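In keeping with the milestone schedule agreed at the kick-off meeting, the structural modelling team has produced records for the first pair of proteins. Each record is given below as a sequence line and a structure-token line. The laboratory manager (R.T.) confirmed that both were archived under the project's standard naming scheme.
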Amino acid sequence: MSDRAARTPEDITRLFVEYSNAGDADAVASLYHEDAVLAYPPGEITRGRDAIRDLWASVLAHRPTFTPEKPLPTLRFGDIALTSTPPRDGAGARAQVVVRRPDGSWVRIIDQPELIHPEQSASDAG
């Protein structure tokens, strides 16, 4: 296991912020399973680590700054866990399903970075 690998489900969010702020799309992509699914950009699905790396490379090219968000309690079921954080702006939530790999590291398999309340989503569509 790499020294930079997520050793707990909670490590992934911390490492995501660290890698993103460093502008390292390859490191961000390493936090995802090879076949991961990311619900981003809004309204779209990005599938697979390579596509996720390409997406983050384009986002990080604009040098955004990410701020750590206090995680909600992690829910675990064996080698699968659900992690989540409430965004600082109070809108919706973020949720990720993560899995422990054979080497003991954790990676995201499903990432929903922007959960929006159904009423807000319906009003946006109309």
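The second protein of the pair:
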Amino acid sequence: MAVTLQQPTRARLITPEGQERGLPVVLRYSAEDPLAVQITFPSSASLDGAEVTWIFARRLLEDGLGAPAGSGDVHIWPCGRARTVLEFHSHQGLALVQFDKIALRRFLLRSYAVVPEGGEEASLDLDQGLSRLLGGV
């Protein structure tokens, strides 16, 4: 059974008007998908009223805590000494979310206790992954 790490935390959604709205979010990491992290936002944060989960590279989170990182749908950068901004792009628009850097760093360190940095490929079950990808064929 794969170990899954969950860490509830608070984030601040930055509105188009520049206002901040606090949100409860859940950070997740699973040894079953060792290259990725997940951030789940509550339904109150989405335009369609549905819970939203973003999945992106754990390495991107690590890089973005120290310097601007990312291309495509997810960008991460430090915002002063205490905060980190995550920018999410979708067909519905753009969302800017601030996190306390300490919460993200704690989550990242806890994820390394599940699968050490650099050990992601060794923990992948390629047969299971291929079977899932090919629909059990």
